[in-house]
């Protein structure tokens, strides 16, 4: 550092470190009886202004000149907000703006004449009965074949979602939370993805060494509504 800054530092009387509240021994400054704490003292405030008003060194100005001279790189600011969750062995993502609530598992009250459909029954969400559907069945996903033993406890959840006048609830094996990604991070679905699942996804995201299928929200709601007709 330059001599200018060193001289400025040497001229400061840091009484707050010697006899004030930050001293290694007992605070002995008589002004503390009136101001209670050093930060309320006029000397402490004056010292702060002196540090801020000190002349800047040539090295400091040179360093920041170089930083501001670096051309700013254009970044893709278009990002998408999604909720990551697992159904069986499959990790999926859905636009977060259609997610109303995530709750612990609730009792599902079955309905007559719903066999062979996606409808599992009705669930009570904050006093309101909502239709519970099987998103895994719609995507033709198999039951989990892996053992999910991690350093944390895994809880099944229910996800409540709505779009316009449509509202559904579906159970999920696990919920991670909100994840943001840039649009250019979305990859095309590989040919190994099942045809049913692929038809409902807009692409694949790489996340924590996993491949996340990003669901087409419009198509999901359309398919659920069509099955109920």
TrEMBL record:
It comes from Thiogranum longum. It comes from the Bacteria. It is found in: Cytoplasm. Residues 79-226 form the CheW-like domain. The keyword Flavoprotein does not apply. One of its GO terms (cellular component) is cytosol. GO terms for biological process: chemotaxis; signal transduction. Keywords: Cytoplasm. InterPro entries: CheW, CheW-like_dom_sf, CheW-lke_dom. SMART domains: CheW (SM00260). Pfam families: CheW. Its main location: cytoplasm. This is Chemotaxis protein CheW.
